[in-house]
C-alpha cells in the first residue's frame, strides 16, 4: 500500500486545514509514494524511536509532533538530529506528522484526553470562528474535591507526578476543561467557559501566578500525556486497513519519549 493512500484516508479525519497556521505538519521525510506494510505510531520522533522502527521493520513512522519542527541549517551528521534524519533516509522510512490538526479534529486528541478523564457532554471550549475548535470541556459523572480529581488525573494518564496550581485543594469541582500540549495561555477561555478546573501542560511560572489570581485551579500533568495518540491512531489505521483490505499493520511504539523524570 502506498504511504500517500494511507495519509489521504487519515486526512479525511484530521484535514490539514484544521492545523494552526505555520504548524509544520504533514510529510517530514522520505517518499510518500513508497510501499508500506508496517507503520510505527509515536508521539515524538527521536533517535531511539528510529532504532525501534528499524528493528520492527516499519517503512513509515506516524508521529504527533513534527520531526522537523525547526528547519535544519545543515545536514552534517555530527549533529544528532541530522544523524537521525540520515538514518531514516538510509533505511527508507517515511515520516508523517499530524499535530494541531489532530488536536483540533472531532474525535481526535482532545476528545481522547477528555474521555480518559471520564468527562461527559464534551464540547470545544475555544471558539475560533471556523471548524477548527480547540480544547474540550465536559462534566464529571459526579462532583469531587480538587484533591481527589488530581489523583484521578494521575491515574488516568499514568503519571508519577504533576503540578497543581490552586488556592484550595478541598474545592468541589464538576466541570473540567482540557487542552493537550502547551495550553497555559488559554486559561481565561477555560474560566469563561465555566470550568471549575483546567488541565493542560507546560504552564509557565508567571502564568501560574495569573491563574492563582484568577482563582482557576489548573493541573499540569505534562505534555507527554498526548502519548494517548499512539494506540488511538494505530487502532484507527488498523481499522481502515481491515475495512479497505490494505494489508498493512500499525504498531505502537513501546518507548517513552518524555524528557522529564520525577525523583
From TrEMBL:
Molecular functions per Gene Ontology: metal ion binding
InterPro entries: DUF34/NIF3, DUF34/NIF3_sf
GO cellular component term of the entry, any: cytoplasm
Residues bound to a divalent metal cation 1: 65, 103, 223, 226
Binding positions (a divalent metal cation 2): 64
Metal-binding among keywords: yes
Pfam families for this protein: DUF34_NIF3
Source superkingdom: Bacteria
Sorted UniProt keywords: Metal-binding
NCBIfam families (alphabetical): YbgI_SA1388
Assembly information from the UniProt record: Homohexamer.
Family affiliation: Belongs to the GTP cyclohydrolase I type 2/NIF3 family.
PANTHER family found in the cross-reference section: GTP CYCLOHYDROLASE 1 TYPE 2 HOMOLOG, NGG1 INTERACTING FACTOR 3
Protein's name in the database: GTP cyclohydrolase 1 type 2 homolog
Amino acid at each position: 500500500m502506498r504511504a500517500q493512500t494511507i495519509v489521504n484516508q487519515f486526512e479525511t479525519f484530521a484535514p490539514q486545514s484544521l492545523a494552526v497556521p505555520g504548524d509544520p505538519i504533514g510529510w517530514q521525510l522520505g517518499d510518500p509514494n513508497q510501499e508500506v506494510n508496517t507503520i510505527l505510531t509515536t508521539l515524538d520522533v527521536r533517535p531511539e524511536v528510529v532504532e525501534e522502527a528499524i528493528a520492527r521493520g516499519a517503512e513509515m513512522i506516524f508521529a504527533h509532533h513534527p520531526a522537523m519542527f525547526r528547519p535544519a541549517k545543515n545536514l552534517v551528521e555530527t549533529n544528532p538530529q541530522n544523524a537521525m534524519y540520515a538514518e531514516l533516509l538510509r533505511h527508507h522510512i517515511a515520516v508523517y506528522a499530524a499535530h494541531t490538526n489532530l488536536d483540533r479534529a472531532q474525535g481526535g486528541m482532545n476528545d481522547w484526553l477528555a474521555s480518559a478523564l471520564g468527562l461527559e457532554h464534551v464540547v470545544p471550549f475555544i471558539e475560533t470562528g471556523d471548524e477548527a475548535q480547540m480544547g474540550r470541556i465536559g462534566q464529571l459523572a459526579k462532583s469531587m474535591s480538587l484533591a481527589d480529581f488530581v489523583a484521578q488525573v494521575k491515574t488516568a494518564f499514568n503519571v508519577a507526578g504533576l503540578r497543581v496550581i490552586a488556592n484550595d485543594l478541598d474545592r468541589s469541582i464538576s466541570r473540567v476543561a482540557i487542552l493537550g500540549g502547551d495550553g497555559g495561555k488559554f486559561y481565561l477561555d477555560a474560566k469563561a467557559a465555566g470550568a471549575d478546573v483546567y488541565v493542560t501542560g507546560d504552564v509557565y511560572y508567571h502564568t501560574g501566578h495569573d491563574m492563582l489570581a484568577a482563582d482557576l485551579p489548573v493541573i499540569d500533568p505534562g505534555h507527554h500525556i498526548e502519548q494517548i495518540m499512539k494506540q488511538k491512531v494505530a487502532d484507527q489505521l488498523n481499522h481502515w486497513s481491515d475495512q479497505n483490505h490494505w494489508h498493512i499493520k500499525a504498531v505502537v511504539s513501546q518507548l517513552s519519549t518524555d524528557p522529564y523524570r520525577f525523583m
